[in-house]
Amino acid sequence: MFGIGEWFHRITRCMDTELSLARLRRKQTLADVVAGRTVLITGASSGIGRAAALLIGAAGATVGLVARREEELREVAKEIETLGGKPYVYPCDLTDFDALDAMVEQVLADHGGVDVLINNAGRSIRRRLDESYDRPHDYDRTMQLNYQAPVRLMLAVVPGMRERQYGSIVNVLSIANMSGAPGYAAYAASKAALDSLCANLQVETRSDNVRFTSVFMPMVRTAMLAPNQIYKDARALTPEQAAHAIAAGVIDRPRRVAPILGRLTVLLDQIIPEKLDNIRAKFFRQGM
Question: Average pLDDT in the 195-218 region?
Fold first, then answer.
């Protein structure tokens, strides 16, 4: 079994390869799917969300940009306009549920509905269990932004999707949900909750042509990753590469977008969980 750094290197390379193969196989382009449609993207002011907004805006979508930082959102909107897209700015702190409800109500009033919702905004906390005994609020904060906020957004936009017989929900999760994430338990649990919820909602909405897609994202070189020095030399996707993974979810609408190595890890975890736990514990101790 290779080390954690090599594992990240391989899984990132694997994701690149699989996205390239998917592009060769598919018959539709991003423009075929989103041109003239309304796409709402959270966390759109920087990083993955910004890159996805630019990509989708350039494909002809009406793009709703959601994040706390209005000035940065307006900069993204200007870039989308130069690419021929139609951006709308919706500044909002998604952890303020009253503000979230008002924001999505405004989006629906402005556009009549949302065709594609991309739940990208997220909070990551790296903290060991023995550092967390007096910090239950870490678990509350991650669930609030990573799970509860997307739930409120979905409950607001899915009725219109079902009525129009078309809709896509794309949730940006983490490869940690497949590989395990000691030290990131609060973060991984909140993302896993969203995937589990949508796996069940998908069954209820499948006949309405509404699809839920989980993108199990490898490490991406963004501001969220920067404080974690243990990963400073690890191979990571660029935000632009990550945006193409999201685009794959929008175009193909699979249940999951994930590298094959991550899927194999999940399978092994069902067969030999104790052995994988021992391997994870070894590398966790080395990285402390």
Answer: 96
